Amino acid sequence: MKPAPTSGYHVRRLYQGRRLDNARAARYRWTYYDTHPRRHAVEAQRLKTIDDLLDCEDERVELIGGIKPAGSGPADPSLQADSRSAIAAASDQTEALDRLYEDLRRCRRCPGMFGPPVHGLAVRSPVMMIGQAPGTREIEQGRPFCWTAGKTLFRWFESIGINEAGFRARVLMSAVCRCFPGKNPKGGDRVPDRVEVENCTPWWRAELETGQPRLIIPVGKLAIAQFADQLPARARLDLLVGRQWPYRSATGLAVDLIPLPHPSGASTWFKMEPGLTLLPQALRLIAAHPAWQDVL
User: Fold this and answer.
1) Do 84 and 119 fall into the same domain?
2) Are strands 245-248 and 254-257 parallel, antiparallel or unpaired?
3) Following CA atoms 9, 164, 24, 56 in sequence, which dihedral angle do they give, to the nearest 10 degrees?
4) How many domains does the chain have?
5) DSSP class of 265
6) Is the pLDDT score of 33 beyond 60?
7) What does the alpha-carbon distance between residue 249 and residue 239 come to, in Å, rounded to a whole number?
């Protein structure tokens, strides 16, 4: 349960126990929706329609500007309007991601890949993470980073303030490719080929333009390579990890990039120098970024 807010503009929803079933009632009881201009309404996206939240006679919604002492009077009506607009925008963005994921699940463009396609939650977030491609376990469970590499990755993020459950709920999780590319005869997973990457690129680009994040965390060489046109030419991993890079999308969206190595158990890069030093350096950059602070 998210603690009561102490600053910013918020929408507080108090469940009254008539319209929703018991499971949803427990899920949304005493949930706070933070709609400060520099934050995102993460929990708001979990409702199917925002109209039910704002207009249902069986529920009571309070729009408040920060926390007011008892008897201090109602919130400023202009803040109420701003809160409604912010939550409605969050809902529209989430619904757009839901529609995108419906199309993604039907994708069968690559005959050499094994589906069904994997995606994260439809999260409106200032932070977007882009992985490489799912493994067999991710295909089975339908969740990105759900096995060994994921355990390592989420330990990294927990060290800077957010656990796995929080990360999945608050960060837009994307990937270069959404299906399993199969095994490499020489060992490990096959790297998707150029055509497969091109086939899948429109999906993460659509997520980027829909979600409008301020920070992108590309994880692994294949993910980092998607931004190569705006990074130093033929730069090695040790020249990219541990630094923040500017990126501008084709539509003009300005985003910061903070690359990370891939957390695969087969990788030794982050277990020895220079990775042993550069990984914590990159995590400190992420932790200090305003977008990351907004998801904590």
Assistant:
1) no
2) antiparallel
3) 20
4) 2
5) T
6) no
7) 22
